[in-house]
Amino acid sequence: MSFLQPSGTIIDLGVNIDHVATLRNARGTTYPDPIRAALLAEQAGADCITLHLREDRRHIKDADVIALAPQLLTRMNLEAAVTQEMIDFACRIKPADVCLVPEKRTEVTTEGGLDVVTHFNAVQAAVKQLQDEGIRVSLFIDADEAQMNATAEIGAPVIELHTGRYADTEGAEQAAELERIHRGVLYGVSKGLKVNAGHGLHYTNVQAIAAIPEIAELNIGHAIVAHSVFVGWENAVREMKAIMVSTRLGARK
């Protein structure tokens, strides 16, 4: 829990460290170290550390997850595909949270939400295995009522709504997408779900999402890594958290 949010009641920031690992892997060096990035992010106000162990290991590696788990003072939010390999790995590491996400080898980044309706049985089995190990499970989904109904039926307590389309649009189209997300947040809460959000959010578009009072947590990575090139890693984390908190407090007035 960060110094900016001692009560845990405003809004949480999950800092995604994937692209610190991307920089490291680009030259095959040991730096920049994603473990150090995670620990510094905690000191700068991150409420949790998010990282995605992809099947192709394009950024985060198994060793990163293993090394980081015992060092965190907040909590780990491990993103993983619905595959037996990834679910078994998560059960060995036992992070506080596992967020199940869709994954395609050809995509640059996650392109949409998990289709819980179509893959209901596989997702249900994965959720049960993780929950049996005491891990809280979230599902990364689109703001779609059918997907939220399926999530609630499975028994996953948390959803993370995909904000990529909101982030990639402008003007009236973005306003419509924001309204769709807002409706989705309210519907998720009505189903008894904790609602988080993320994907594509940055320093000038996060405000409208952060202002939605029912959203508990935003997970943001690429924008923070990119901004840190100019202002430093800890400053980039602090700035994002400050924007989120000030926006939420302003929305309450």
Automatic annotation (TrEMBL):
Where are the catalytic residues? 52, 79, 199
Q: What class does this enzyme belong to in the EC scheme?
A: transferase
UniProt EC number: 2.6.99.2
Q: Which UniProt keywords apply?
A: Cytoplasm, Pyridoxine biosynthesis, Transferase
> Which InterPro entries does the UniProt record give?
Aldolase_TIM, PyrdxlP_synth_PdxJ, Pyridoxine-5'_phos_synth
Q: Where are the transmembrane segments?
A: none
Q: Which residues form a coiled coil?
A: none
Q: Where is this site: Transition state stabilizer?
A: 160
- GO CC terms: cytosol
UniProt keyword Cytoplasm, yes or no: yes
Matching entries from CDD domains are given as: PNPsynthase
Where does this protein hold 3-amino-2-oxopropyl phosphate? 16, 27, 200, 221-222
Residues engaged in binding 1-deoxy-D-xylulose 5-phosphate: 18-19, 54, 59, 109
- Domain of life assignment: Bacteria
**GO MF term list:** pyridoxine 5'-phosphate synthase activity
Task: Enumerate the catalysed reactions.
Answer: 3-amino-2-oxopropyl phosphate + 1-deoxy-D-xylulose 5-phosphate = pyridoxine 5'-phosphate + phosphate + 2 H2O + H(+)
Compartments where found: Cytoplasm
Q: How does it assemble?
A: Homooctamer; tetramer of dimers.
The UniProt function text for this chain reads: Catalyzes the complicated ring closure reaction between the two acyclic compounds 1-deoxy-D-xylulose-5-phosphate (DXP) and 3-amino-2-oxopropyl phosphate (1-amino-acetone-3-phosphate or AAP) to form pyridoxine 5'-phosphate (PNP) and inorganic phosphate.
NCBIfam families recorded for this chain? pdxJ, PRK05265.1-1, PRK05265.1-2, PRK05265.1-3, PRK05265.1-5
UniProt lists the family membership as follows:
Belongs to the PNP synthase family.
Output the PANTHER family linked to this UniProt entry.
Answer: PYRIDOXINE 5'-PHOSPHATE SYNTHASE
Identification of the protein by name: Pyridoxine 5'-phosphate synthase
Species whose genome carries this gene: Rugamonas aquatica
Q: Which gene encodes it?
A: pdxJ
